[in-house]
UniProtKB/TrEMBL annotation:
Pfam families: Creatinase_N, Peptidase_M24. It comes from Halogeometricum salsisoli. This is Xaa-Pro peptidase family protein. Residues 13-94 form the Creatinase N-terminal domain. It comes from the Archaea. Residues 153-380 form the Peptidase M24 domain.
Amino acid sequence: MATTLPAAEYATRLDAVRGRLADTDADAAVWFGATSIEYLTGFHHVPTERPVVLAVTDDRAEITVPRLEVERVRENPRIDGVHHYFDYPGGDPIRTAAEMLSERNVDAVVADSDGASGTMGYQGPPLSEFVDVETQGWVTRMRWEKTDSEVDLIRESAKWANLGHRYLADYTEVGAHPATVSQRASTDASRAMLDTLGSRYSVRVRGDGPVTAGYISGRETALPHGHTPNERLSKGDVLITGASADVDGYHSELERTMFVGDYTAEDEHYFELMLEAQTVAIDALGPGVELAYVDDEVTAYFEEHGVADLAQHHVGHNIGLGGHEPPYIDTGWADHCASEHTDLTESDATMAPGHVYTIEPGLYTEEAGYRHSDTVAVTDTGTETLTNFPRDLESNVIR
């Protein structure tokens, strides 16, 4: 039962970026992105208008944070020095980061961006006002292939997502409100997870529990990103569910199309087409397979059955620390990799061991949507489906 990432993983990641840094003319590598900082050091924070800046040299990792984060980061064993400004805009975060770099005699950096993003209204100078800056996307690319330890965390997430989804199905009934059913299922699954893991659970939430489970219903399901409607459930309602769990920052994704009490012949028709399309996609996955090929296979299946016009999105995406991560199972992925606007190569157009994908082809009529999503890891020899809630029609009817 994996609940935290081994400390050795962070050492390996820092070694990897230091190896890349050594191949440049820069004195340090810099990150502003919260997920990249978490990936390299394990320090996780909520991005606000207050920038956080991580700098890695050949022998040190130092960070600039707002005053309110000092105690949270000070004991981090991967970070050798902590610098802070009081707040924004009263403080001067980029100048503080520049002073941190100056203390290490850094004149040139490779950074994930030339300054902090405009989160929550932040506006500030570029880092290049103080040092020479070249951009890099090292961590974003490193995150594509998960290690065995990372996959273990996603596998654990999938286990608790499955429990949350089971509660969701159990609590759903005619007359219930989708919002309160979702809250109850999330709370009870979170309670079970926390009671089971105890002190082994690595806290990554603020107020909410680690398991989230919910759904959209009725006509909102016809919108791939629909919202929970303010209407109680009725017999015959279509549901599109979703469940996940946070395990040391890593996530899985489990979605099902379900029916309250009954379903129509039209529901059955589109459900079975969607289900077979998902099977086509899962069967097509594997190491060395072109990502565009999998999306093309699903599109061909939909075209064969005359429903391609009801598809509104690609087959899926990588998942891990982020809910959506590249690469994407999309018909245009190979062209994207070949584009002069990216630093990707032809080899980035194929799946590799350690990739973990959501597989979620969907069909959307004017009345309802039909989509399952499962989390599938690519292995050395094939694939492993990490989520395991039943996929067939009868298992997804709430009687």
